[in-house]
Amino acid sequence: MSTFLSDEFAAITLCAEGAVLSDAGDMTGALAHYRAAVLKAPALLSLYLILANAEQLAGDVLAARDTLRRAVRCASRPEVAEDFALGKALVDAGAGADAVNCFRRVRCELPKDAAAASALASALRAAQRPEEAWSEIQHALRIAPANPVALHTAAQIRHDLADYAGALHWIGRSLAVRPDSPATIVTRGYLRHLLGDATAGWQDFEARALPEPCTAAKPWSGEPLSGKTIIVMGEQGVGDQFQFLRFARHPALLAASRVVVTCQAEAVPLLRASGYDAVARGTVVQTDFFVPLLSLPLRLGVDVGWRADAAAYITLPNSPVRRMTAGRRRVGVVWSGNPAHHNDTQRSIPASLLHGPLRTHPTMRFVCLQQGVTAADMPSGQWETNTQGDWLETAQQLCTLDVLITVDTGIAHLAGALGVPVWILVSHVPDWRWGASGNVTEWYPSARIFRQPARGDWSRVLTNVSAALSALAVSDEASDAAAA
């Protein structure tokens, strides 16, 4: 047997052993075997795909991206099917830009294949190139005008081009062909919310994969809860957790004898300190009923407006008091979200852009609340830094600020839930919850929204933030003069 075949056989054996370990619940051992298999036979694409899938299942999206990018450089891909499989894995892992060339090769080999053109359009969209994606999806629809996947992709691209009415049109065409597609219905829900139709949006959101407890609890549909217990099932990201937590304080839920809220483990101390009966997701709690967190508005028959003017719904006992430092306002800054998030490149701001707009405000004391920051990343050496901690510690830090300036990430929702003044910087095509226009939001009375005037234009956003800081300083001077 040749050395190549011997290495290939050894790699396949390692993979099989890794699968056994994975089935037994030993993901660490499984990953070690999969990585050893890749090293043994680096030309086998299937090994990279297995490893990347395992890394994603283990929650390490960034490692999966790195694995798939190595596959682009090292794996043999003699057939179109290999390029297609690798491109799809890259898009699923949030590396759409790396997938474009894979699908271009597929498209060249299969010029009359609608799936190939549609896949290339999806990769171009994921790579933040919607104009090129639109051209490509039109080609796919000329080949297969009733393909529901291509029609759905067309809707997503029109959304990315800020053509929301056009996006709804293409969603309608896709659902006319495949009316029971959960992904398409949820996409319509996002669009409806963005355009202000919350009632229809909540209904569409029910098509998502709904969390359920592994108990005998019954789904709650709004019936009276007096004398009963209920568990609110946390879902999606920590920002969603903070945003929708408000509904757990609705009188219909508080009528229950016990309301348990599940959340990310790192948020449990914060929620408990704020008075919620919180447990980590996956904790088994016996209750009479359960309800998914994001289903509460629909089940309660309310929208965010039911408590728009109410006090903060995350409160800390003995919370720190906002304080001026050497006569200067304390301004927290977060310029980047979780890099594993599929949309992070669009929502995050390069630290280098912050230098000018923020350095020109000597009356402000800037506080870095950016996770994972190094000295080299700091916009200025004069900034105050805080130790990184869990969400309870972050909430305590937020309570010492006069204002938080942040991109659209979890800490923005925490600040809003705490009632801390927060300026949220959002991309030209915003997330559904911020609406399509305006600088205020019903979700958080303490929030002010700064929008990109064009795709990728963070410079203008930061110029507007700088002007708002200057106005704040002028207001402070006027107040000081009046007091004197």
Short description:
This protein has 21 helices and eleven strands. It is α/β, with parallel strands linked by helices and 484 residues long.
Helix and strand topology:
Layout: H1 3-23, H2 27-40, H3 45-57, H4 61-74, H5 80-92, H6 96-109, H7 114-126, H8 130-143, H9 148-160, H10 164-177, H11 182-194, H12 198-205, E1 218-219, E2 229-233, H13 238-244, H14 251-254, E3 258-263, H15 268-273, E4 277-280, E5 289-292, H16 296-300, E6 329-334, H17 344-347, H18 355-359, E7 364-368, E8 384-385, H19 391-398, E9 403-407, H20 410-418, E10 422-426, E11 447-451, H21 458-483
Parallel strand pairs: 1-5, 2-3, 2-5, 3-4, 6-7, 6-9, 7-8, 9-10, 10-11
Label this structure with key terms.
484 residues, alpha/beta, Serine Threonine Protein Phosphatase 5, Tetratricopeptide repeat, 4 domains, 6-stranded parallel sheet, 5-stranded parallel sheet
What can you tell me about this protein's structure?
The strands form 2 sheets. A 6-stranded parallel sheet has the order 8-7-6-9-10-11, with helices on both faces. Strands 1-5-2-3-4 form a 5-stranded parallel sheet. By secondary structure, it is an alpha/beta fold. The N and C termini lie far apart (92 Å). Helices cover 49% and strands 10% of the residues. It folds into 4 domains: 54 residues; 151 residues, Alpha Horseshoe (Serine Threonine Protein Phosphatase 5, Tetratricopeptide repeat), CATH 1.25.40.10; 90 residues, no CATH class; 155 residues, Glycogen Phosphorylase B (Rossmann fold), CATH 3.40.50. The mean pLDDT is 91. The protein contains 21 helices and 11 strands.
